[in-house]
Amino acid sequence: MRYPQTSDPVATDGRDFDDRIGEVSGEAAEQRATHADERLQAVAPQPWAQVPGVAEPSPTYYGRPMLKPPVWSADIPLYYFLGGAAGAALALGAGIQYAFRGDGRMRELRRLSARCHWIGIIGSTAGAAFLIHDLGRPSRFVYMMRVFRPSSPMNMGSWILAGAAPAAIVTGLFINRRGVLGAIGEAAGYASGVFGAALAGYTGVLVANTVLPIWQDARRWMPVLFILKTAVSR
Amino acid sequence: MEAVLSAADAISLERQAAASDTGNRGRRKGFFTDTTLCIGCKACEVACKQWNQLPDDGFLFTGMSYDNTVALGASTWRHVAFIERPVALSTQDAGAFSWLFSSDVCKHCARAGCLDSCPTGAIVRTEFDSVYVQPDICNGCGYCVVNCPFGVIDRREDDGRAWKCTLCYDRLREEMAPACAKACPTDSIKFGDLEELRETAQERVRALHHSGMKEAYLYGADAVSQPGTEGLNAFFLLVDKPEVYNLPPDPVPPLKRVKPVWASFAMAAVGLLTLAIGSAFAARR
Fold first, then answer.
1. Is residue B220 part of a domain?
2. Which residues of A are less than 8 Å from B272 in CB distance?
3. Which domain holds residue B238?
4. Is residue B166 part of a domain?
């Protein structure tokens, strides 16, 4: 059963369909639908103050938008902040690691770099959780890594995030160990720095790669703005 | 010799014959919507809803002429626009008024913003050259919604996935024309091979110009007239500016403009790493 009892066609999901005499198998058969009056009211046009159309030619279609608004919720700006802070923190952590490599004074900055790694770990994992929560089908989040697709900044971002979060975790766990584990931690530290810088900036490309005029017009500066924002946030 | 065919055999033979004869498969298929023939009956909307078993969008009274459908969306794959103009068509005898109808649909762009931006590969190009969203792959990220320069594709919130016209992929596979084209009583919606449709459309424009309707033109028929999308597989014959029909005058998928953005991304990312290393070195001193 794709949807609950529909023997009363009036009470169906809007297909006006009686499942005693047929089965739903069309292209949109899987589409789940519930009647939501609020949603309807939101899309319903407001009454006119005066009747348009007959006075002068209108360059628009009843003032209706030509484009669809983004369907994203508050999860996305939250992720921009968390992911950006994590990315910039990981970059700084890697910067400290590089500047103080083989230097005993590293200990002085150990607290700062540990804090960087923790911000990186928390930001990238919590950010990823917000992203997954925003999906229409959160259980399918892993499909983001079904393909490697440079034409889609969101796909690139998924790969960057999938690199940054584990690298941050490995760095946080092993960076101050000795021996092989320490070496792994140091390598992960550099990797997390590179992933972090990409994580801080790819969101700028992501919003620039849309048809929304205000984002597209500012596209050249979007990554720069996003990275500056992350640099300020740390 | 007596040949006894079961019903299943007969159907499969018929399909084989159809496939080898006028097969849809592997051919570029599309729509040519001639809005001068549209009478605004909305049979295409109804046929689409019925065949694809789409749920309704609620029953609104908008006051926008006879258009109570408003726009294309996740469960509205055909939308008839009604335009009341205070100007006459050039072939009109009297009255400073004309009523335009246009059945809008997904354009199945040769360069589709939704397809390029889809991070999961759920949106694919089919063997009919149409753009198809695989509902079993789509995870509802909503990126295609902001990558369609026509505002066609949308996410259905109670379903969680993005939906749009499939060019009746299921019907095409069975050698049938899409439901809307089949139902259109005036042949305003023509379905067929793209090359043939383009010829038909150009002939139609010539005929209209000859009969005095000089304002008729083709919208998105090829890559020359619409370089952004590189031509639409569902193109239109219009008699007013595209904006009047709520169509963009110069649609460009965002991917075509994103290269310099990646360049500034690379520079900014390198800048951030330099800043990080630089401030760490500064702390050393």
1. yes
2. 88, 91, 197, 200-201, 227, 230-231
3. 27-261
4. yes
Among A14-23, B222-231, B271-280, name the one with the lowest average pLDDT: A14-23
Q: Between A108 and B231, name the one with better pLDDT.
A: B231
Summarize the confidence of residues A46-52 as an average pLDDT: 55
- SS3 call for B100: strand
Whole-number pLDDT of residue A49: 55
The set of residues, in sequence order, having a beta carbon less than 8 Å from that of A13 and lying 6+ positions away, is A3, A6, A32, A33, A34, A35, B55
Query: Is residue B186 within 8 Å of residue B38, measured between CB atoms?
Result: yes
User: What's the rounded Cα separation, in Å, for the pair A23 and B172?
Assistant: 20
For residue B99, what are the β-bridge partners?
A: B84
Q: Which residues sit opposite B109 in a β-bridge?
A: B232
Residue B236 lies in a domain: yes
Distance of CA A217 to the CA centre of its chain: 21
Give Cα B27 to chain centroid, integer Å. 17
State ipTM. Answer: 0.85
* 3-class DSSP assignment, residue A60: coil
- CATH class of domain segment(s) A75-233: mainly alpha
DSSP labels for A128-141? Answer: HHHHHHHSSSGGGG
Q: Which of B19-33, B222-236, B251-265 has the lowest mean pLDDT?
A: B19-33
Residue with tokens 């760490």, as numbered in its chain = B280
Q: Do B142 and A136 touch (CB under 8 A)?
A: yes
Judge whether B208 and B111 are in contact, CB under 8 Å: no
Determine contact: B99 vs chain A, CB below 8 A. Answer: no
Interface membership of A85 toward B (CB under 8 Å): no
CA dihedral sign, ordered A64, B159, B177, B250: positive
pLDDT at A1: 41
